[in-house]
Design a protein that fits this description.
With 107 residues, the protein is of the alpha+beta class. It has one domain (7-104): Alpha-Beta Plaits (2-Layer Sandwich), CATH 3.30.70.120. It contains three helices and four strands. It has helices at 16-28, 67-77, 95-104, and strands at residues 6-13, 34-46, 49-63, 86-89. The chain has a four-stranded antiparallel beta sheet with strand order 2-3-1-4. A hairpin with a 2-residue loop joins strand 2 and strand 3.
Amino acid sequence: MTNRDFLVVTTTHEGEEQARALATAVVGERLAACAQVYPVNSVYWWDGEVQAAPEWRIDFKTRAELADRLAAFIGEQHSYQTPEVIAVPVVTGSTAYLDWINAETAG
């Protein structure tokens, strides 16, 4: 596997409890090896105007081949009408960490 076989997939949630529950569910399904949950302040266009709200961001570390399954799972579990699901490629990373992601995600 190369570095490009790995992604960081991001979503947000309105509350910490919901974000942690989603993170736990995704890691439990082995769609990601790790999830980081932290507070952010979002500004976005919705319902014809600029909105602002505190949210909880979740960054999932996963294999690229699991991206579609992970996105579908997030969509099924999420309370937002249009949840953010954005994946960015890992350009570089430590071999040991990437090997760990590979070992801890669904085959």
